[in-house]
Amino acid sequence: MVDPTPFPRSEVLSVSGLTVSYDGKLALDGAEAHVPRGTLTAIVGPNGAGKSTFLKAVLGLEPSTGEVRAFGRPVAGVLDRIAYVPQRAAVDWSFPVRVFDVVLMGAYRRTGLLGRITTALRAEVAEALDRTGMADLADRQIGALSGGQQQRVFLARALMSRAELFLLDEPFAGVDAATEAAIISVLQGLRDGGATLLSVHHDLSTVSSYFDRVLLLNRRTVAEGTVATTFTRERLATTYGAALLQAAIV
Amino acid sequence: MLAALALQAGYNAALVSIGAALLGAAAGGAGAFLTLRRRALMSDAMAHATLPGIALGFLAMVALGGDGRFLPGLMLGAALTAALGLWSVQMILRRLPEDTATGAVLSTFYGFGIVLLTVIQGLGQGRPAGLETVLLGSTAGMLRADAIVIAAGGAGVLAVLWLLHRPLAMVAFDPVQARLAGLRPETFDTVLMGVVLAVVLVGLNVTGLILIVALLVTPAVTARLWAGTVGGVARLSALIGAGCGYVGAAISAGVPDVPTGPVIVLLASALFVLSLLIRGRHG
After folding, report:
1. What is the H or E stretch that residue B223 is in?
2. What is the mean pLDDT of chain A?
């Protein structure tokens, strides 16, 4: 991997005026984000706020208007430095493939069409599985995994890309407590190693303990900043609407 | 029949058996990636869309004063209308779901092809009976040149699949992740349909355009019941296709009046039913 381009203000991801519409309805209406290096940001907002759409639009997977820059450059040119962990429902889990091979797919930019799967690469896959607590399941069919294990496979695959920016779509949705602990430990480890992470998150009760920044989104950015300054009752009320917030917290 | 299985039933029977085995291997391999990418229905539309092209190719060659049954000419016509059929499916897909799009294209192109075949029969020239074999296949008159076409086509298909197995598998499993890794799914889908088209064209001579889809799909879904990796499914599917092609051709050579294509397909179907009974819960 090439040396990261020196970037002013250590802003890894900058998004401005990001707008996405489906059949004339706005899914995102001028969303903003300015994410510094080495931070772990929760993207929080009600259902239909456009959280998943935000990640997809940032990656160029959805047609959008507005400006998105990662590492100071247009995203299309730096996709090799970005990893995306989609929702589990994104793939067919009955597909005939083993855990090892899915994780290896994360290194496709290095293996290419016919590049040899070297011993070093195998060791790297083993390490990614070990970090996510999946070391014993390398040879298992993905169809035989639990929801939490599936999520960990996706995370291990993302680790193989050696990315510096990670975008995760609800990594904790429908997983067991052990998986949740394993995943947050990996994410915080990546952050401590200098990576930058954004994760769509639903459980408001864990935002403060898991994340250091928060992006409050409801089609547009309501607020963005450190958990201490931004994750406040008033801001949440603005994001969710007062009545909905009651429901979300209960 | 046993003699045919042992390649001792004469030069032509041996040629047919080897040709059918190569076709089966290519169809099985291509079918594995086709079904994993969930494009089986689209290949059915494509196969049926070859018929008007075959008829138009025949008419064009007769009009130019040639032999209307010259195989490369028929294959060229078939390739053109198959590509047109696929393009039509893509256009309709912008507004309607895939099953509707493929169904509409399949029946329209096939219907047009049947009309053209009827017209050709009405012309009363060029031995139209020879043309009808493209529907259900006929290996009885297979020549050395035909066998070489099948061998070259089959080998080409298997080579492309081997070369591109990683991106094809990635696109089939997770097209979004493939795109982020720098692989355009559209490109590999086009390659895949091109490979399938090659199988269909090569198969015109053996199983015919209707049954070739069975040879693409059946070995692949059978292999899926047994194998747990993309590579495993592809290899086993190719092996099943080759085995059914070989044995089917031998049976057809040994038993009078038994057509080759249907026998091959029935063998593949029997294997599938058997596999389903044994491994049904593993699928």
Report:
1. helix B208-226
2. 91
Task: Answer whether A121 touches B (CB < 8 Å).
Answer: no
Cβ-Cβ contacts under 8 Å for A11 (sequence gap 6 or more):
A34, A35, A36, A37, A72
Res. A243: pLDDT tops 50: yes
pLDDT, one tens digit per residue, over A51-62 is: 999 999 999 999
Region B228-244 average pLDDT: 97
Rounded average pLDDT over B19-41 = 94
B228 with A86: Cβ contact below 8 A: no
The Cα-based distances of B50 to A17, A227, B232 in angstroms read: 49, 62, 31
Q: What are A84's two structure tokens?
A: 């995306």
Cα–Cα distances (Å) from B247 to A47, A210, B16, B141, in that order, read: 58, 63, 10, 18
Question: Which of B177, B229, B233 is opposite residue A105, by nearest beta carbon?
Answer: B177
Q: Which residue of A has its CA nearest to B36?
A: A95
A184 vs A164, A200, B23, B44, B51, CA distance in Å? Answer: 17, 13, 51, 47, 58
- Record: contact B182-A101, CB cut-off 8 A: no
- Band of the pLDDT at A101, cuts 50, 70, 90? very high
Across the interface, of A94, A96, A161, the residue whose CB is closest to B227 is: A96
The CA distance from B95 to the nearest CA of chain A, in Å, is 13
Closest CA to A37 of A11, A5, A69, A59: A11
Which residue segments constitute the domains of chain B, with CATH numbers given?
Answer: 2-276 (1.10.3470.10)
Position B253 scores a pLDDT of 83
Give the pLDDT confidence score for residue A247 in this predicted structure: 56
- Report how far residue B222's alpha carbon sits from residue A247's, in angstroms, rounded to the nearest whole number: 50
8 A C-beta contact, residue B192 and residue B46: no
Tokens linked to B271: 């294997």
CA B257 distance to own-chain centroid: 23
For A34, half-sphere exposure in the C-beta direction (CA atoms, 13 angstrom radius) is 10
Phi-psi region of A194 (alpha: psi -120 to 50; beta: other; left: phi over 0): left
Average pLDDT over residues B263-277: 95
A30 closest CA partner among A15, A42, A43:
A15
pLDDT tens for residues A138-184?
999 999 999 999 999 999 999 999 999 999 999 999 899 999 999 99
CA distance A135 to chain B (A): 19
| Enclosing H/E stretch for A214 | strand A213-218
Question: What residues in chain B have their Cβ under 8 A from chain A's Cβ atoms?
Answer: 36, 163-164, 166-167, 169-170, 172-174, 176-183, 224, 227-230, 232-233, 283
Give the residue on B whose Cα is nearest the Cα of A78: B180
Which residue ranges form the domains of chain A, and what is each CATH number? 8-89+165-249 (3.40.50.300)
**pLDDT tens string B119-137:** 888 776 555 556 777 777 7
User: Which alpha helices (H) appear in B64-97, and where do they start and end?
Assistant: 71-93
The candidate with the shortest Cα–Cα distance to B39, out of B108, B109, B89, is B89
